[in-house]
Amino acid sequence: MQSNRRNLLILVATCFAVLLFLLFGPENQKSDSYAQIRAVISRTPESKVLEISPDLNARYFPWLNPIPVTFQSVDPAKNDPRFMRAASKGAEELAKFLTHEGITHLLIADSGQERNRIFYRWGAGPSIDVALTEPLFRVVAVAFGEFPATLYAVKKVELDGFCFECQGVRFEWNGVRESAVDTSRYGYVEGRDIVWILGQDQPSLRLMSTMDSGVRYRVTFKIIAAYGDDAPPQILKFQTEEGEQFEKIVGGPGKDVSVELDLGKVLEIHSVLPCMVPAVAQLEAGNQDTRELCFGISSIKVEEIK
Question: pLDDT digit string (tens) for 14-58?
Fold first, then answer.
């Protein structure tokens, strides 16, 4: 009996040793371009690294692969509305947030997004498209292979004007198909630059947060007319419990529409004029899309009203 137990323990220990060798052994170290990243981190006193996975692949940095994350990491970015808030406001605000959190480096996945940028299409939170350039963000190491990534050193900046109490917001959608707004499950159904609101949709939006500080928000939508430069005009009604706001949308690059909204309150968006069917309207030769397109949303930004 004891012999069997001893043999079992030897087998388990051997398997574990083989696994460690496969992950971290000499051959793996030769091909492990993350060794350069770990070396840079090891030379940084009190390093703290934030991993930024691609918008469509939140599990880009799994634990069981040739990328052992041996350095300290905060929660993944998409689960932190404060990060999303700061990044949506641009590079300077992001640098202030990272400085406040003590983040010394960003590890950015190079798969699924442009180099030197962080991009998240709106969905569960606001739109993000921020360039990581010097002097605020400096490339210090690059990893190649199956999981390419770039390590950026974050410049420590002054926190003048930084909102310490701002928690950021999450979007809670109703009345619109899930595949249009849940990028984590469905990806970019119609491309990363636009979401078409269909005749079947009756979109409504609420801003949610972990803390209600009584702050009022300005939500700015980039609205695109359906369909293209020659699109027929559309009238949209933005309705809250405080009243209605009507906006005329015409063909072209799009129109910014801002609506003030309190946390937890509902904003409904209605199409007043008939929506169009590309296959019927034939504004674009050969377009056989039979969906009823009402308007498109290219981006959504949220800011606190002081």
Answer: 655 545 544 444 434 444 568 888 889 889 888 888 888 888 877
State residue 277 phi and psi, 5-degree precision: -115, 110
* CATH 2.60.120 domain extents, the chain: 170-305
Q: Identify whether 135 is preceded by a cis peptide bond (ω within 30 of 0).
A: yes
- Which residues is 239 bridged to in the sheet? 244, 268
> Minimal CA–CA distance to 182: which of 53, 62, 56?
56
Both tokens of 118, joined, read 């962080």
Q: How far is CA 77 from CA 30, 125, 250, 289, in A?
A: 30, 12, 36, 36
pTM value surpassing 0.90: no
Q: How many angstroms separate the Cα of 55 from the Cα of each of 33, 89, 104, 155? A: 23, 17, 22, 24
Report the run of H or E that residue 36 belongs to, with start and end. Answer: helix 34-42
The alpha carbons of the chain give a radius of gyration, in whole angstroms, of: 24
Q: Which residues have CB under 8 Å from 140's CB, separation 6+?
A: 40, 105, 151, 152, 153
170-305, CATH topology level: Jelly Rolls (2.60.120)
Contact 28, 22 (CB under 8 A): yes
